[in-house]
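Give me structure tokens for this 338-residue protein.
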Amino acid sequence: MRCKDRILTCVPYSAEAAPDWAFDGSSTGMASTDNSDTKLKPVCVCKDPFRMEPHVLVLCDVYEGGSNKPAKTNNRHFCNALCEKYRDEEPWFGLEQEYTMLDVDGWGLGWPKGGGFPAVKYQFSYCGVGAKYIAGRDISEAHARCCLYSGLDFEGTNAEVMHACWEWQIGTSVGMKAPDDLWLSRFIMTRVAEDYGVDITYHPKPMGMLHPGVGMHHNFSTKRMRSDGGYQFIEECIKRLEANHMKHMKNYGNDEATNRMRLSGKFETAPFEKFSWGIANRKASIRLQRNIKEKGKGFMEDRRPAGDCDPYLVCGMLLETCLGGASSSSSKSNPCKK
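Here you go.
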């Protein structure tokens, strides 16, 4: 992630009021030096928890200079087209962002120096309390307060299975609100940790194969899934997800190889290449809560995305696979056609 500051004579309290801007795309590897101006188009505004009122944070779409073509990394354009098409379906997303705190030397925060490992059983670190079992609570608490101040749909946080590994939750939110808030909350986390001299990593397997991994579970539903009789439609969507399993897996992380390391079938994960689903099964690709079948409606949890995935890409692909693609003109921007 990157950021830069702009001083204005009035406060843009909405994306429509915020001015477009530009940056040097050649310095970020997103443009050539002879055509480096890359466009920033505001899409979301929230309160700045660091400078506070009247300052704001502005989340932007990135477009190639001299055109209205989204940059190659701009998966928001793809997701937004699908959210707009299926607006009447009221897609809901709930995102569970896991992450690991590292000391400035690259080793786990609170882990023994010199490459040592915590002498703690993992079941005691999950939702743990006490310095023996967790590390970094002050950072997690500061991050939560910042996200709440900014007005994000921030729903909670907990210590995860691995020492110095945590999670926060965004949503359930309608449409683009969830992935937008997730990216803003990632930025806020990076800024908070910067003040503590701590590095945040979303790498799916940061400490190697003998330790738990880092994911971002996506909870997803549509109006039809949440309505009476929606369980049958959920099952239909699961069949579509199974038929497109490897297409999703190739786009469910920053790097396919590292998510493959995470999805080993161990530490409550499903194998990378094998699709599965089940009721209350945390080793399944898609998990349904027990009461969903009892009520005959609800949502699904996709447990496959890596911690470093792009939520715009994952949310968009869930919509595309379960409901269908966007219009022919918009589908050209789909980065996942292959």
